[in-house]
Amino acid sequence: MNKSRIIGFATSIMLVLVTASGNWLSGQTAYREVTIVSNVLGPEGPLFVDGNLYYVAWTTSTLSKWDGKTTTVLNHTPGCGHNGLALTKQKTFLLACDDEHGAILELDLAGKELRRWEVDSKGRKLDGGINDIVVTANGGAYATLSGPFVDPPVLVMGKILYLAPGSQKWVEVADDLNYANGIGVSPDQKTLYVGETVGNCILKFTINSDGSLGHRSNFALLNLLTPNKVNSWWIGPDSMKIDSKGNIYVAQLYGGKILKLSPAGKLLHIFEIAAGSGTTNVAFGDGERDLYVSVVKDLNDPQAPGSIVKIPNIK
User: Which residue from 58, 85, 137, 262 lies 20 to 30 Å from 243 (Cα-Cα)?
Assistant: First the structure.
């Protein structure tokens, strides 16, 4: 949760310069970090839709919309612990409830609840919490069930659930994940990526024609790509997004940064985030030119105060 130690003053100047105005210089790259929304308790799930920024807050269990001028709370569902947010092909939201007694909600764009799932296809409760959701090109969806956030973590109980197009039931398609978190689908719809926060790694699966998963394999181990900033069970991948070229943007929980990885697992860029040490999620603006990052200032604070910041993307 603390910023990493920078070894050597001269090296730190070459790697990262931060000015009082918030301009960052990393190598030959310069970008300005702008706070879009502040004072969010447990910021997560940013989505940029039709010129509006939607985001959730797990501490207050709310979904909000920022239209460029004002913020409006659209949904407040006590006990949900709002977390991942995905837009369906029908222009509704799928919302992950990451409370210990998890659920998946479908909401309209005004925040009205349309549907609620509290069990999977076998009637098993979604205990452990639903963490993140991604919608596929054919209208299906995958969701991660993580496990309780206790320190240190004990149970390895993470799962991936699948909702087929037109189906009303979520089916388990993978299990035994070490705190399953962020999830994403490649542009060709052939590969599913999922982060294991406690494992500090990203796995990938082949997506079969019926939505089931196969060929589970390792994709990236984050501490081999960038040094850990703290020693913690939880310094691993949080939520992720995948751009039109198949690059993966991973929020590193307790790392204070967004990692951009190629489809081959190569580290392409590190976006250091000044607003806090708890980067939780990322979203694309129009044309993928900008990134909206949800970040907690200090994850040691149980209220998890934070913000949504905007930075230019590096392509």
Answer: 58
